[in-house]
Design brief:
The protein is an alpha+beta fold. The protein contains 11 helices and 39 strands. The chain is about 20% helix and about 25% strand. The chain has a 9-stranded parallel β-sheet. Strand 7, helix 2 and strand 8 (about 135-140) form a beta-alpha-beta unit. The longest helix is centred in the middle third of the chain and has 23 residues, at about 280-300. It is globular, with a radius of gyration of 25 Å. The protein starts with 6 loop residues before the first strand and ends with a strand.
Length: about 650
């Protein structure tokens, strides 16, 4: 992502509505960075939760320094030599991203806010009637009764269980926002039980700290305390039992209204493992520990199901508990461009599951911006559209029929790549190498990749070059060294140089390297159709290549034992044909795909095609030079022999 040389920054999580790239600090605090010199990488992680500062060559290009206002000088120097090695070791230290539920990788539609319940149902119905794929609808703060967390407005949402059950029947999951501030109200159960169990952060005089947020005067759970987290987890489990699939934690810097600092005073007291700590020490982990308790609540409610939590605020290691979005961005082209760079930085920093608000949260934007944003976000790990209450409607169909078609195509593209995307998530959960990655992570020996922040790789086999300028029908991009193919037409391109490509309003330039194997599916309306969909292995190889394919049930923890399906696909081209071998599968999960196919790009018309020595169905397209070979859904070893 971004080069940091010549900059200085502060680590102090902050609620920054309408920020730009000059604003520091932001919502999330990750005191970890990579240093790359002459192709050799190492990392530095300064594990200190106090307000800390980093001067990376701003005062002098000869050195960098970092320090904090309190605590211990604990820092780790993490060896490479490659960026991937540093990220793997950093992930070993701070914890891997767990496999998320499959539905969370689909398209999410949000707004501040959808209400009443009839409006929520209407939005869901629009998606299904218009055949625009989507997996979830999000509820912002207006579903609550007077902004009291864990409650529903009795007029706007009189029967939440019925609503959520109806959405589930339409294959929509529902996610609701839950902030940390608990309204001071003696008639409010959450306030009474929290006070009774003594879970709130306190002033030095021993009384709970009270600060205004959405519900007015509020108190805040001391999430650094195990007892407070237990109380919160119980409340989350009870609240989500109405049928919520996920929880969205916001305002958890923690944000406090009407004070210059935007947060609690430094001397507010928290408990932590039997000792007292001040807000000065607890601030930067407040949101992380909140997501820890939220995740625990979902786990208690549904122990066998993977939880999903989204947060605005967190700290290093928070990737174990929640995905992250980049807060209140703006509907302009600068935010689209900077948003890509920010997400690449998140990936380099050990937070792979991240996204930003498609179309921009603040302001109006226009049709062109929303479409180009959606195209880029096809390959953001987290793909959600969101808009503030003052903004016009920003659903995919809100910009008229022509742009509805473009937006539908962008979202459909996400779903056709789901098998590949899911495999990238699996690899990240094992290695820490982000799904969405800066070119330098994979090509550290190519100095031309070092400052590239407007294009990216998704996994190792897909280079994404979205159009990030208004009313533009082309863009320049850099392809790293090696042979590449334009996914739109299979054109062969020699890498190691910049080039200009055309891109109509509904086109997303995508490139694959020599040896790539992509996993694809047909268009589906939600991830619930995934298990029975067709599965295609698309091979782009003139040289021998191999890739691993992985699948599991997408929602339980069975994959941690033997509930998975994993096999290696090996391809050996020669002058006379191609051999494709699919190894005997590991694991006990049995995929339910109706049809499977291997599609060979750059193929000649075959004289013969066999599977394990016998006849097999194959279809050759002379125009595209693609050969599609149907294969059975089988865990056994499969050997395909093609002779030209």
């Amino acid at each position: 992502g971004a080069k940091l040389g010549g900059t200085a920054m502060t680590m102090w999580n902050a609620d920054v509505y309408g920020y730009d790239n000059s604003v520091d600090p932001l919502y999330v605090d990750i005191p970890f960075f990579l240093i790359l010199r002459k192709g050799i990488t190492h990392g530095i992680f300064f594990d200190n939760t106090w307000r800390s500062t980093f001067d990376i060559g701003k005062e002098s290009r000869k050195y960098f320094d970092f320090g904090a206002e309190g605590g211990e000088l604990n820092y780790y120097v993490i060896a490479g030599p490659a960026p991937a090695d540093v990220l793997r070791r950093y992930t070993d230290l701070t914890g891997p991203m767990p496999m998320p539920p499959l539905w969370s990788l689909g398209f999410h539609q949000s707004r501040y806010s959808y209400y009443p319940d009839t409006r929520v149902r209407q939005i869901a119905a629009e998606f299904r009637q218009r055949r625009i794929p989507a997996d979830s609808i999000w509820l912002d703060i207006h579903y609550m009764d007077g902004y009291r967390i864990f409650t529903w407005d009795p007029k706007r949402f009189p029967d939440p269980k019925k609503l959520l059950r109806g959405l589930q029947e339409m294959n929509f999951r529902t996610v609701a926002i839950v902030d940390p501030g608990v309204k001071v109200d003696p008639n409010y159960e959450a306030y009474r039980s929290g006070a009774r169990e003594d879970v709130f952060a306190k002033n030095p005089d021993g009384k709970p700290f009270v600060g205004p947020v959405w519900p007015g005067d509020a108190v805040f759970p001391a999430f650094t305390d195990a007892h407070a987290r237990d109380w919160w987890a119980r409340k989350i489990a009870e609240f989500a039992s109405a049928g919520l699939a996920g929880i969205w934690n916001d305002m958890n810097e923690p944000s406090v209204f009407n004070v210059t600092s935007g947060t609690m005073p430094d001397d507010v007291r928290f408990r932590h493992d039997g000792r007292t700590m001040t807000h000065a020490e607890a601030h930067n982990v407040f949101g992380q520990q909140m997501t820890r308790a939220t995740q625990e609540g979902l786990m208690r409610l549904r122990p066998g199901e993977r939880p999903f939590v989204l947060t605005r605020d967190t700290y290093s290691g928070g990737q174990r508990y929640a995905a992250v979005w980049t807060g209140d961005n703006t509907a302009d082209w600068a935010h689209l461009r900077d948003g890509v760079t920010t997400l690449l930085g998140m990936g380099i920093s050990g937070f792979p599951f991240a996204g930003n608000d498609i179309g921009g949260f603040i302001g109006i934007g226009d049709a062109d911006l929303w479409t180009r944003w959606a195209e880029a976000a096809t390959f953001f790990p987290f793909m959600r559209a969101h808009a503030e209450d003052a903004a016009p409607n920003k659903e995919p169909w809100a910009y008229g029929p022509e742009f509805e078609t473009y937006n539908k195509q962008a979202i459909e593209r996400r779903y056709t790549f789901l098998p590949y995307i899911y495999n990238c998530f699996y690899q990240t959960s094992r290695t820490g190498m982000p799904m969405m990655r800066a070119l330098v992570l994979q090509y550290p020996d190519d100095p031309a990749t070092y400052g590239v922040g407007d294009e990216f790789l998704f996994g190792s086999d897909l280079l994404v070059a979205p159009v990030l300028d208004p009313h533009s029908r082309s863009r320049s991009l850099y392809l790293p060294k090696g042979i590449w193919y334009d996914l739109r037409n299979d054109q062969r391109i020699e890498g190691g140089k910049s080039l200009k490509v055309e891109a109509a309003e509904n086109e997303l330039p995508l490139f694959v390297p020599e040896g790539a194997i992509l996993f694809r599916a047909p268009v589906m309306q939600s991830t619930t159709e995934w298990a029975a969909s067709d599965l295609t292995f698309e091979v782009f190889a003139h040289q021998p290549t191999r890739r691993e394919y992985y699948e599991d049930d997408g929602h339980t923890f069975d994959y941690r034992q033997d509930g998975f399906f994993r096999r290696t696909i090996s391809v050996e081209p020669s002058a006379s044909g191609v051999n494709v071998t699919l190894s005997k599968a590991e694991g006990k999960y049995v995929p339910a795909h109706r049809l499977n196919a291997v599609v060979l790009h750059f193929a000649k018309r075959p004289r013969s095609t066999t599977l394990n020595g016998g006849a097999v169905g194959a279809r050759y397209d002379a125009q595209s030079e693609q050969l599609a070979i149907g294969i059975p859904q089988s865990s056994e070893r499969l050997s395909i022999q093609v002779n030209w």
